[in-house]
Specification:
single chain, mainly alpha, 0% strand, rod-shaped, transmembrane, membrane, transmembrane helix
Length: 205
């Protein structure tokens, strides 16, 4: 295999990798979007109702939310907190903290893929550009002055690899930032619920 052919195969491999990365990114974004939507559906009125129930001191009424909204993260958390509230405030606090960590891990699943793709896609594209520039200079050295048009065309194709890398990375980073912000909101709301349940137990005590 000649040097020029080897470089050409490497360039092709870079574009294949970018194509696979883009398909993987779309799949992860769609899957995570479905998970976030399912777990936060109806939260605009479920969350205030749970808080109101906790402030009334009626922790026994919390399980009704998970029955009506079994996929809602706040309803699940309320059910869990109600179920373990008999163990006392200190025990419940530790259990709720563990539950919040478990929910966070569930939401963060596969987000590391987006983070990795967003951080590395531009470098993969840049690697393709480097291969293209190497090929351009090789042709320049081989063909001499007659290689001007070929070299310019090769360089333009090489720069396309960087453009593709950025085209993959930018939307992936935006999607990852969106999911990260949503997760922070969910985590903050769970912490609010945790404090409400603990305060309810304190009033009872």
């Amino acid at each position: 295999m000649s040097f020029e052919n080897a470089i050409g195969y490497m360039e092709t491999a870079i574009f294949v990798i970018m194509a696979i990365a883009s398909v993987l990114a779309v799949a992860v974004v769609v899957e995570r979007a479905i998970i976030f939507v399912k777990n936060t559906k109806d939260s605009s009125f479920v969350l205030p109702e749970i808080i109101q129930t906790a402030r009334k001191g009626d922790l026994s009424g919390a399980p009704k939310f998970s029955e009506n909204y079994p996929e809602n993260v706040y309803a699940r958390f309320a059910d869990f907190s109600s179920e373990h509230s008999k163990g006392g405030k200190e025990s419940l606090g530790e259990l709720m903290e563990g539950k919040m960590i478990g929910e966070r891990v569930g939401f963060e699943t596969r987000l590391s893929i987006l983070n990795t793709l967003g951080n590395n896609a531009p470098f993969i594209g840049l690697l393709g550009t480097v291969f293209g520039v190497i090929s351009a200079f090789y042709k320049l050295g081989t063909l001499g002055n007659a290689a001007g048009e070929v070299v310019m065309r090769t360089i333009s194709q090489a720069l396309l690899a960087t453009a593709v890398g950025l085209a993959v990375a930018i939307p992936v980073v935006m999607a990852n930032n969106y999911f990260t912000r949503k997760l922070k909101i969910i985590q903050s709301n769970l912490e609010i619920l945790s404090k409400e349940f603990l305060a309810s137990l304190s009033r009872k005590g």
